[in-house]
Design brief:
Layout (H helix, E strand, L loop, with lengths): L3 E4 L9 H6 L8 E6 L11 H10 L4 E6 L3 H10 L4 E5 L6 H10 L3 E6 L17 E5 L14 H19 L6 E5 L7 H7 L3 E4 L1 H4 L4 H22 L1
Parallel strand pairs: 1-8, 2-3, 3-4, 4-5, 5-6, 6-7, 7-8
Helix pairs in contact: 3-4, 6-8
The structure holds D-xylitol-5-phosphate and zinc ion (ZN).
Length: 233
C-alpha cells in the first residue's frame, strides 16, 4: 500500500531550512511548506522568494499549502517556480476550477484543501480537477495543535467519493487524500483507517530527536493500519 509522508517545515528551524530538509530527504516523499499571509490565517510564514530558494536547494518535491487569501492570484506562481504540488483552500478561492487547472498547466500537481468546518459535498464535483484533496484535521494557521477527531468522518466521506470517482470515470491518475494537523504516532493509524494516504506531519517529525526515524515510524504505522483494514474487510 502506497502512502506519502510530507514533513511540514513549519515545525523546523527556519534559520537552517536546507539542513532541516536534508534531514528527511531519504525517507519522506515531499516537503510540506505552509505559505501563510496573516489574512486567510492569523500567522505569517514564507512566500515565493523562500520557495524559489527551496526548489533550487532541496531534493524532495515541495508540497506547497497556500494558507492565503486570493489563491487564484498567487497559486500559479508557485507552480511556475517548480513546486511539486500546490494546494489552495476551497474557502479562499473564487474560481477553484480555473485555479486548479492553472496549477496543472504550469506543471505541478493541484490540491484542494477543506478547513474543518467546510463540508465535502459542494466540492465533490470538482475532485477530478485535483491531484490531492486535503482534509484539514486542525484549523489552519499553527503547528502543534490538537487533532480534531470529528474531521475523520469527512476523511471517510472523501475516501468514498474518491473511490466512486475512480469507478465511474475510470480515472487512473492518482488522487491523494491528505490530512494535515495533529498527525502523529497516536493519530496517524486512525487517519489511515479512515482512508487517508498522504500525511503531513510537522511537530511529530521536527520535534523528534531523529526526524528521519520519525518519518519512518509514521510511515510504518500508516501502512500497518491500511494492511489491517484490507485484511479484515
Ligand atoms: C497548520 C499547517 C500544518 C502544520 C501541522 O495550519 O497546515 O501543516 O505544520 O503541524 P503539526 O503536524 O505540528 O500539527
Ligand atoms: Zn499545512
Amino acid at each position: 500500500m502506497t502512502v506519502r509522508i510530507s514533513p511540514s517545515i513549519l515545525a523546523a528551524d527556519f534559520t537552517r531550512l536546507a539542513d532541516e530538509a536534508d534531514a528527511v530527504a531519504n525517507d519522506a516523499d515531499m516537503l510540506h511548506v505552509d505559505v501563510m499571509d496573516n489574512h486567510f490565517v492569523p500567522n505569517l510564514t514564507v512566500g515565493l522568494p523562500v520557495v524559489e530558494s527551496l526548489v533550487k536547494n532541496v531534493r524532495l518535491p515541495l508540497d506547497i499549502h497556500l494558507g492565503v487569501a486570493d489563491p487564484d492570484r498567487w497559486a500559479p506562481g508557485y507552480a511556475e517556480a517548480g513546486a511539486g504540488s500546490v494546494t489552495i483552500h476551497a474557502e479562499a478561492a473564487n474560481s477553484p476550477v480555473r485555479t486548479l487547472r492553472a496549477i496543472r498547466a504550469a506543471g505541478a500537481q493541484a490540491g484542494l484543501a477543506l478547513s474543518p468546518a467546510t463540508p465535502l459535498l459542494p466540492y465533490e464535483g470538482l475532485l477530478d480537477e485535483a491531484d490531492t484533496l486535503l482534509v484539514m484535521t486542525v484549523e489552519p494557521g499553527f503547528g502543534s495543535q490538537k487533532f480534531l477527531e470529528f474531521t475523520l468522518e469527512k476523511v471517510r466521506q472523501a475516501r468514498e467519493a474518491i473511490d466512486a470517482l475512480r469507478r465511474v470515470s475510470g480515472r487512473d491518475v492518482p488522487l491523494w487524500l491528505q490530512v494535515d494537523g495533529g498527525v502523529n504516532e497516536s493519530t496517524i493509524a486512525r487517519c489511515s483507517e479512515a482512508g487517508a494516504d498522504s500525511f503531513v506531519a510537522g511537530s511529530a517529525v521536527y520535534a523528534a530527536d531523529d526526524p528521519a526515524a520519525a518519518v519512518r515510524a509514521l510511515r510504518a504505522k500508516a501502512e500497518d493500519a491500511k494492511f489491517v483494514v484490507a485484511e479484515t474487510s
